[in-house]
Structure formats: C-alpha cells, structure tokens
Design a protein that fits this description.
With 226 residues, the protein is an alpha+beta fold. Helix content is 17%, strand content 42%. The protein has 2 helices and 14 strands; from the N terminus they run H-E-E-E-E-E-E-E-E-E-E-E-E-E-E-H. A 6-stranded antiparallel β-barrel has the order 2-3-6-7-5-4. The longest helix is centred in the N-terminal third of the chain and has 23 residues. 9% of the residues are buried.
Length: 226
C-alpha cells in the first residue's frame, strides 16, 4: 500500500514537472518502451500469507507462503509460489493429519494441475512419508505422479525408485525401478507361515487321514505236523 501511494505521488510530481517544462519551452513528444512486459504483470501479489481455511465452520486447512502471485496473463494462467509453499490439514481436534511442503509451487488454475518443485515433502493421513524433487497433482484425473527419484516410508517398509504414481489419497501407488527394505517382523512372520505350511500337523491336515489302530493278535497260528 505504501509503495502504491509513493508511486502515485511520484507520478503526480512527474506530471507537474512536465507541465512546467512545457510552459517554458516548445512542446515535444516523449515516448518510451514499456518497463515490464504485459505478460509478466501479476493480477495480485500477496506477501506473508498465513491463512486458515474452514469447511462448514470447522477449520481444516492452513496455507503458509512467503509470496503468492496470481497471474492470469501468463500462458497458461497460473498461481506462483516462488518462495515455497506449506499446506497443513487438521482433524476435528485441530491435530495435524497431513502436510505438503516444497521450495516452489505452481498451480495451473485452468488445467487444475499442481506442480511442486525443489524439496517436496509429504505426510499423508495413513502415515506415508514421501520425498522427491518434483511432484504433479492432477485434480481432474485424481492422480499424483513424479518422474524423478522418489523415496517412500510407511509404518512397515521403505521404498525408493526412479518414478512414482499414485491416487490422490496415496493409498494405491506404484514405484518404478524400485528397491527397498522391509521390517524384520514381516520376514519373521513370512518364515513362520512357510514353516507351518511345509510341516503341517498330520492329525490336523485335511488331506491325510489319521491311521486307525490295529487289533492285537491273541490266537496261536496253526502249523503243519512233520
């Protein structure tokens, strides 16, 4: 606001100076190129954004950004977060359920696509942690994907690969060219299942009937006389 007032004052001062000069000398035409290309002029730029968003009277989200630029003149139209973006989602008791943060973000409002760049970090509702250098979220297709190295950590395993694709809730996902590690409990439980399957109890296994006891012989066998 102060910059706008200062600009208006400077403009008024410049106009007054030109009128005084024109009264004392011959009239001349002054032309100059535009200072900024129209394509780069933002419709709105906000600084120090820290906003809570509610749904049906309940606070659900928080957006934090040092700079938020809305530019409809660019092709395609977009929102720009050049200095980072942080989004939180709360449960009904205002505890953090999930969050997304990155160094740079773009939202293409016509295509409804988010593009996150830099140190992208995500915590989902189900406890999945995601880390990469890029991430795209297509709201129309309800999918999330990355074409760069991605690292995932869940409660029981860890995966990493060259690319990543998931539904927008991050409950069904694929990691390509993946490698990872699993919890020791998973391996132990798997071994127990294998050992139980390979050595079943003979009396409890349906494919094999238990043997019936034989009757004890009490008679003396007959022999031929010599």
């Amino acid at each position: 606001m102060e910059e706008s007032v200062a600009c208006k004052c400077l403009l008024a001062f410049a106009c007054m100076a030109l009128m005084l000069v024109a009264g004392c000398s011959e009239e001349k035409e002054h032309t100059a190129p535009a200072i900024l290309d129209r394509d780069s002029v933002a419709m709105m730029t906000s600084y120090g954004v820290n906003t809570l968003i509610s749904d049906s009277g309940v606070i659900k989200y928080r957006i934090v950004a040092e700079e938020w630029e809305m530019n409809e003149k660019r092709n395609p139209s977009r929102w720009i977060f050049n200095k980072g973006l942080f989004l939180e989602q709360f449960d009904p008791t205002l505890h953090v359920q999930s969050y997304i943060q990155c160094d740079t973000a773009y939202y293409y409002d016509v295509q409804r696509v988010w593009e996150l760049r830099g140190r992208v970090r995500i915590l989902s509702k189900n406890g999945l942690r995601f880390r990469s250098e890029e991430l795209f979220w297509d709201e129309r297709k309800h999918e999330i994907y990355s074409n760069k190295f991605s690292h995932l950590i869940t409660t029981d395993r860890e995966l990493q690969g060259s690319s990543f694709r998931s539904d927008e809730k991050m409950t069904k996902y694929h990691v390509y060219s993946s490698k990872g590690s699993f919890a020791k409990d998973d391996i132990d439980n798997s071994d127990k299942k294998k050992s139980t399957t390979s050595r079943p109890d003979s009396t409890g296994y349906m494919g094999r009937q238990p043997a019936s006891p034989r009757r004890k012989v009490t008679t003396i066998p007959l022999t031929r006389p010599n």
